[in-house]
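Quick note —
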Amino acid sequence: MIDPELDLTVERVIRAPRASVWKAWTDPAKFAQWWVPAPAVCRVERLEVRPGGAMVTQLSEDGTQFVPHLDASFLVVEETERLVFTNAIDSSWRPANPEPFVMTAEVMLADHPEGTDYRIIVRHGTSAARARHEELGFADGWGTVTKQLAAVAEGMQ
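Predicted structure written out below.
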């Protein structure tokens, strides 16, 4: 259930089968191609797509110097249907308080006549955290990476 006071969402039809979208999310080489808005570059340190598995990425603005980007854990993995991850627990299973906010993201994939119905809900603990994420460019950032995800998945056909 979506709480408009706490949650932000992205929805898109990706013109590729769910298996391709899933692979773009779960294959480290594919994931690195779309996870951060271009022209920034992503390096995947760990992508262990299983409940309790790590999701650790680094970001580079120039393609040479990388800084930590995300240190998170997968909570739920339902193949080709659903992924849930959070940065409230880091990849070592330690409680985390990441800046600028804590979030839990749920990715849902469903069949659509034109490919895959792609939905993501990013949940926040407070309305202030949600507002902060929105102010930092949620719509533009997550919209951009969703567009990049679609390009990767659609290119696999």
